Structure formats: structure tokens, C-alpha cells
Amino acid sequence: MKKDFLYLKIKSLIIISPTKLFFKKIKDALDLIQKTDLKEYRNIFSRLNIIFITNKNGYTNEFFMPEKIWFANKTLIKNNDINWLASLIIHEAFHATQFKNGKYIFPLGKKLEKSAIELQKKFLEKIEGKKVRKETKYLIQKKYWEKIEDDKKSLSYFRNLLDLFQNKKIKLSYKS
Asked: What CATH number belongs to 4-174?
């Protein structure tokens, strides 16, 4: 496992990535959130401390509380457009509010994901109008979160990275 990562700080949010290529995409997504929904943009910085993009392929991601760290495999960031990525950041950050309100329990249930998906869908509708995006429809109708839970390798990988990060065993270099 590669233990060297780059990091960039935007306000209070730290973005950790195996390569600087993902920083622009995250910045563009945050800019879109700011332009589209200033309230949600402000919420991001109280709900999320770290976006940690892994060097692992795959579409799995996981939000950790109380650390407020969102882990995402690099393929998830690389292969999705800015609109979808911005909506996903809002979705994942919303889990912090669920935790704060005593509703965030693991494993995540349908109810928790459904409300986060609805928030994500509302954001996408602000950008794209009332048409239902194919991906959003898939999330709601096919329970994409269940597919993510089946990816035990990524979930254990995220937990391992979290442990390495907390024990300062990951080398972080500042990207200027």
C-alpha cells in the first residue's frame, strides 16, 4: 500500500490524494456547490474535516464519524463529472448531521441513505432541472449502497488507512 500522499487545504477542509490531479476536480466541485447552494457550501466545512482519495481503483466510498473523514476510491473521483461529484460531497457530508442528531449508526440503513440521496438529488435538480439523473434513479431504485457494503476489501482498506493516518504512518506532502 502506498503510504505517501499529497494534501491541500481549502478553508478548514483537508483534501488528501495520491496525486495532484484530483485536487482540481475537488476544487471545481466545491466551487460548483458554492455557486449553486451557498448554505450547503458552508455546511461542508462544519460537516467534513477530510476528503481522503485513495490510490485504490473502485467506486466504493465511506464516511467515518466522529472523525468526519470521507474516504473515496480514486476511480469514483476520476470517472464522475463535477455535478455528480459535488452532489456526492453534499451527500457524504450530510452523514455528519445524521450522526450529530443520533441517527448515524453502522451499518448504514436504507433510511439514512435515502435522506442523504434525497439531498443529493435536490442539489442535482438545482443544476440540471427536474429531470431525474440516471445515476440518482439507480441509487434510489437499485440500492447502490448495498453494493458498496458488499465491497469488503475497500471497506477494510479504508479502516486500515484511517488507522495509519491517525497513527501518523502516512507521509503527507503539501501541494502548493
From this structure: 3.40.30
Q: What is the DSSP letter of 130?
A: S
User: What is the distance between the alpha carbons of residues 133 and 111, in angstroms, rounded to a whole number?
Assistant: 21
Dihedral sign from CA coordinates of 68, 115, 110, 72: negative
Mean pLDDT along residues 142-148:
57
The C-alpha angle with vertex 100 and arms to 76 and 98, in degrees rounded to 5, equals 50
Give mean pLDDT, residues 131-147: 59
Q: Report whether 73 contacts 60 (CB < 8 A).
A: yes
Indicate the domain borders of the chain: 4-174
Residue 162 has pLDDT above 90, yes or no: yes
CB atoms < 10 A from the CB of 146, how many? 12
Phi-psi label, residue 151: left if phi above 0, alpha if psi -120 to 50, beta otherwise: beta
Whether the bond into 18 is cis, omega within 30 of 0: no
Q: How far is CA 129 from CA 4, 30, 89, 98, 122, in A?
A: 41, 19, 19, 27, 9
